[in-house]
Specification:
single chain; mainly beta; seven-stranded mixed beta sheet
Length: 122
């Protein structure tokens, strides 16, 4: 019912930048928070950045000052600008949206993108 399509992952050397994009589509009434998560092999998935419908943001400490999350509500798109990338940022990055479906009342659900690989070489 809700599809999230990501783009922007790839291979970059340390100190470089990438910009991830995630566009939502489907039977959406409203998107509340949108987030980026990441997971490396053998590690738990962690919340990297989150942005609410009111544009409030939060970040995991390890990316503060380097990453910026933003959203374009008209385009139903969330972005993650990643600067000064480190090898420790290497992971699969997943887009998440908390969305209310048309006719779904006030209960939202979590929807996930397919994941995009970010690899940072040293």
């Amino acid at each position: 019912q809700v599809q999230l399509v990501e783009s922007g992952g790839g291979l970059v050397q340390a100190g470089g930048s990438l910009r991830l994009s995630c566009t939502a589509s489907g039977n959406i009434f409203r998107i509340n928070a949108m987030s980026w998560y990441r997971q490396a092999p053998g590690k738990q998935r962690e919340l990297v950045a989150r942005i609410t419908s009111g544009a409030s943001t939060n970040y995991v400490d390890s990316v503060k000052g380097r990453f910026t999350i933003s959203r374009d509500n008209d385009k139903k798109t969330v972005y993650l600008q990643m600067n000064s990338l480190l090898p420790e940022d290497t992971a699969v990055y997943y887009c998440n949206a908390q969305a209310l479906l048309r006719g779904g009342g006030f209960l939202d659900n979590d929807y996930w993108g397919q994941g995009t690989q970010v690899t940072v070489s040293s």
